[in-house]
Design brief:
heterodimer, A: mainly alpha, two-stranded antiparallel sheet, 10 helices, about 50% helix, globular, B: mainly alpha, Na+/H+ antiporter like fold
Chain lengths: ~190, ~800
């Protein structure tokens, strides 16, 4: 089954998170990644790109809904839409749903990278895992523990030994999220 | 003691230099005097006529001295040595460098030596004369800058850079020149004979940005990438601007009147200079790249081409009086991209090392002689002029930056705040080049010495170390999270494919396509994929084998246990530790040093004296394997309700407090190869970290070997499956002692069993069966679906099995 060259019509009903040109390019990219022309991507296809990345498997995991094994094109676009650069001077329309690339949504995406079990908190284990993935191999286990401990101490106000999303967001308030989590290609 | 020895060394060399200086004095006496004492006339048996017939005839000279013959190279070497010793001395005594930048210290030492020479009535070697400076001293520095320049940020910011360089230079020079001229009008200062053109000339020199000084000043300051790139680029382009302005004003200074046509010609000249520089750079860069395509048999001279072609570019540009700095930079950028793919690893390292070395030497010498010449030249010290020069320079530069930034900030996605602007302003101030340029002012200009003095003082003032901008000690959280996000972004970039790195402008895409289709085919060596991969593999293997033999054998922790949940629960119940400030700082250090550098986004800007660090790419290669394995396991365990197991199993098995260092070489060995294969066959050299990887597809699965690790390491080492290449065996004999399984190199298109291992594994019986499963691996664009499916299904129960066996 060959995927259609045009995006499926049902996508037009929702708010398209990216422009038409970008959509086309993403579709080409989707087709490229989908080597067997199945119409959806499996995790292996995505992992091929992210092999070098220390948290590559988490990123891949973010594309898949829990329980699903495949990603179809609309979901692909929806996830990538998080990385559009935020537009400034956007009229805040209360009726419209929050755009995918708002700062909040970007932070939520990043938060979910840590929070694999989707319980809304980054537990110490989860933090340790991510730290281990990202840190080089020269760091001892004790040091890792201390770092994770410190991180949680800094952010954890309700003493449940985990970082909730609000705290996560607050600790990053000075950081230019838009710069750090935007791909200009998706503009 | 070390400081003492350093100081002694320096004094000794100082002494040497002075004595050689003194020797020059005696040079006026003919060598007669020396020869009278020691050099005997030719021995009789040669039968030549005696030069000094009244001398006694021939005893064989036992000890002769001929200083004049070696004088020039000898003195040169001594000067270089002296400067280098001072450098060593500074680093031995670390505290000094905190307060004063190295360049200032070098100037200081130069001052001392200059003082000594002055008292001896000696002339220092004319290092800072125009020719020597521009032809020899400046070149390595510029080459270094160009070669190690991060190209992607540079091209992304080209607009900004041009804006600041061109407009800024114009603004500055005209502003400073005019205000100085205004000052000169006051009779009080007795400067009336400096006319407008001369002022403008001087101002144009002062106002341009000097890449040498900039990078020096910012070496120790935590400056962010954007500022670095803008200043760096500004330095380059302003060379073009300066050349034009300088020649224009110099020309005008000799002309009685100025026509408007001259202004127009000046603008035209600017374009000629700039574009010509770029063109020449490209030309020579391509020539170098093309040449390197054929040098596979003569690898020893490969680095030579890089240097020779860049030098040619420089000289030809000087010939036509176009911007040679730009020519070299463009040449270096072009060359680097293609040459690094063509030449061998060793040549690549050599090139980088030599470039760095030459640049460091050159820079050291420049600063050193800046100090020396200060003392020894004739100075005309006019307080007013100099002070006003400093004042105006700073003033106009600051104003210029403010105004320019205001105008251009709306066009940039990353805007400059005030702190950035201050950095821009400060960084753009003058240095050694200005001094040399002033030196070259013809003597027709009366106040040449005044200018010299002014520029010298100018340079000095602004070398005072900028107060180290306090890196806001981010909280640990921020550091971790920002790094996560950077990795994430990198990953998303990869997912978006090659275009993800570009802004989507079609010009960029078309360049990439043009590059891939034509340039790479012409300029790159025909990739004999097998041999290059195999050779790379061999190299890595040898390296790792050596490492293996070096590390002691007993380091593998005996009973690696995972951080089971029980441990974590225990820790959680511990009372909250109090973290001392030192601990926190250490944590920051650990984080910053050990987190993976994101490729393409950040490079080590912290020290320009060290080579960029490529070891991270290696580590990332290792990490890839780990993440693959983890994802495999994650897949397996997605169905499992007991998430706890999956999480704990994802850890590398290490005791708490276990030493990860020992694990590293082993892992490197086993994991490095598949990455290298993949990278090489995709045409990307693993050395160059600034490349987006062409997407690859998997070929074979990577087999998981998780089995309980026993204390005994030296278990029997089952042999590899059939397709082992011979050279592997001898390499792995070392490994056999440690009980490791050797990974098999993936010859690309063969569906080989790729064996993987972990540092805590031991070979168990169960693996015998597992080995024959069709594994998953990597290969370029060659998907083997059948193997994948089968591999998946077969793999799951096996790893489940192994894991279960481990758990019990």
């Amino acid at each position: 089954m060959n995927p259609e060259p045009e995006p499926e019509p049902r996508l037009n009903l929702c708010v398209i998170p990216v422009s038409a040109a970008v959509l086309l390019r993403l579709h080409q990219r989707f087709q490229f990644l989908d080597k067997d022309s199945r119409g959806h991507l499996r995790s292996e296809d995505l992992e091929a790109e992210l092999s070098e990345n220390p948290i590559g498997d988490r990123i891949v995991g973010a594309f898949f809904q829990p329980g699903q094994e495949t990603v179809d094109f609309p979901s692909f676009v929806r996830v990538l839409a998080h990385f559009r650069p935020t537009e400034k001077n956007r009229t805040r329309d209360g009726v419209q749903p929050e755009p995918a690339n708002s700062r909040n949504r970007k932070l939520k995406f990043a938060f979910q990278l840590y929070d694999q079990d989707r319980d809304g908190k980054i537990s110490r284990t989860e933090l340790l895992q991510v730290l281990r993935e990202m840190l080089g191999l020269q760091v001892t286990e004790e040091q890792l523990q201390s770092i994770a401990e410190r991180a949680i101490q800094e952010a954890d106000l309700d003493r449940d030994d985990a970082i909730c999303f609000d705290k996560f967001r607050k600790s990053l308030e000075k950081v230019d999220i838009d710069h750090k989590m935007s791909v200009r290609f998706l503009e | 003691m070390r400081t003492n020895s350093g100081v002694i060394c320096m004094i000794f060399v100082l002494f040497l230099c002075c004595t050689t200086g003194k020797c020059k004095l005696e040079e006026t006496k003919p060598t007669n005097s020396v020869s009278l004492d020691t050099v005997k006339p030719h021995p009789n048996d040669i039968g030549e006529p005696q030069p000094y017939p009244e001398e006694e005839q021939g005893k064989l000279p036992v000890f002769t001295m001929n200083y004049s013959r070696i004088q020039i190279p000898f003195e040169f070497t001594l000067w270089v040595l002296l400067a280098s010793f001072s450098k060593i001395g500074f680093h031995i005594y670390q505290k000094i460098t905190i307060w004063i930048p190295e360049s200032c210290l070098l100037i200081g030492i130069g001052l001392i030596v200059g003082g000594i020479m002055y008292s001896v009535k000696e002339e220092p070697p004319a290092v800072l004369s125009s020719d020597v400076f521009f032809l020899y001293m400046l070149l390595p520095i510029v080459l270094d800058n160009g070669y190690f320049m991060p190209t992607r940020p540079f091209f992304e910011n080209v607009g900004t850079v041009l804006w600041y360089a061109v407009v800024g230079a114009l603004w500055n020079s005209i502003g400073i020149g005019l205000s100085l001229f205004a000052i000169c009008q006051f009779e009080v200062f007795d400067l009336q004979d400096i006319n407008l053109q001369e002022n403008l000339l001087f101002a144009s020199i002062i106002s341009a940005v000097d890449p040498v000084a900039v990078l020096n000043v910012f070496e120790d300051v935590g400056v962010n990438e954007q500022i670095y790139i803008v200043i760096f680029g500004e330095g380059l382009f302003s060379d073009a601007v300066t050349v034009v302005l300088y020649s224009m004003f110099a020309f005008l200074a000799n002309m009685p009147a100025i026509d408007s046509i001259d202004v127009f010609l000046g603008v035209a000249r600017f374009f000629v200079v700039g574009i010509g520089g770029v063109l020449f750079g490209l030309l020579f860069g391509f020539m170098a790249a093309f040449t390197s395509r054929f040098t596979s048999r003569v690898q020893e001279i490969e680095p030579l081409f890089v240097f020779m072609f860049s030098y040619l570019a420089y000289l030809v540009a000087e010939l036509f009086a176009i911007s040679s700095v730009m020519a070299i930079i463009i040449c270096a950028i072009t060359m680097k991209y293609y040459v690094e793919e063509n030449v061998s690893q060793r040549s690549c390292t050599t090139i980088r090392h030599v470039v760095k070395m030459l640049a460091t030497i050159s820079e050291t010498l420049i600063f050193f002689f800046l100090g020396v010449v200060t003392i020894t030249t004739v100075h005309e010290w006019n307080w007013a002029y100099i002070l006003f020069t400093l004042l105006f320079a700073f003033l106009w530069r600051g104003l210029g930056i403010l105004v320019l930034t205001q105008i251009i900030n709306p066009f940039r996605t990353i805007q400059f705040n005030l702190k950035d602007q201050f950095g821009l302003a400060y960084g753009g101030l003058r240095g050694a080049i200005c001094f040399a340029l002033v030196f070259t002012l013809g003597d027709t200009i009366n106040r040449r010495n005044l200018f010299v003095t002014a520029s010298v003082s100018f340079a000095k003032v602004f070398y005072i170390k900028i107060r180290r901008t306090n890196k806001d000690l981010n909280t640990i959280n921020v550091e971790i999270h920002t790094r996560t996000m950077e990795h994430l972004l990198c990953g998303i970039d990869d997912l978006c494919g090659q275009w993800g790195h570009y802004t989507g402008k079609t010009s960029r895409d078309s360049f990439k396509m043009f590059n891939d289709r034509f340039l790479r085919r012409i300029l790159l060596r025909d990739r004999k994929a097998e041999s290059s991969i195999v050779s790379m593999y061999k190299k890595l293997e040898l390296q790792n084998a050596i490492e293996l033999l070096d590390t002691t054998m007993g380091d593998i922790s005996a009973a690696p246990s995972l951080l089971s949940l029980q441990d974590e629960k225990k820790e959680a119940s511990r009372p909250k530790k109090k973290f001392k400030a030192t601990d926190i700082r250490k944590m920051h250090d650990i984080l910053s040093k050990n987190m993976y550098r994101i490729r393409q986004r950040t490079t080590a800007f912290t020290s320009k004296y060290s080579l960029p660090d490529d070891s991270q790419t290696r580590e990332i290669l290792i990490r890839r394997h780990a993440s693959i394995r983890r994802s495999l396991r994650a897949e397996n365990f997605r169905e499992q309700p007991a998430q706890n197991i999956s999480k704990s199993l994802r850890y590398y098995s290490l005791q708490p407090g276990g030493n990860l260092d020992s694990a590293l070489p082993l892992r490197r060995r086993s994991h490095a190869i598949p990455e290298v294969d993949r990278l090489r066959s995709s045409g990307v050299s693993p050395r160059s970290s600034s490349r987006s990887l062409i997407p690859m597809s998997k070929l074979n699965t990577i087999e998981e070997k998780r089995s309980p690790v026993e204390a005994s390491v030296a278990s029997t080492h089952p042999l590899e499956p059939s397709s082992t290449e011979d050279h592997l065996d001898e390499v792995f004999t070392g490994s056999r002692v440690r009980g490791r399984r050797a990974p098999v190199p993936a010859a690309r298109r063969r569906g080989q069993n790729r064996v993987d291992e972990d540092e805590d594994e031991n070979i168990s019986e169960s693996q015998g069966e597992e080995r024959h499963l069709p594994p998953r691996g990597w290969a370029p664009e060659n998907r083997d679906l059948g193997a994948n499916e089968a591999g998946n299904s077969l793999l799951r129960p096996s790893s489940l099995r192994s894991q279960r066996s481990w758990r019990t």
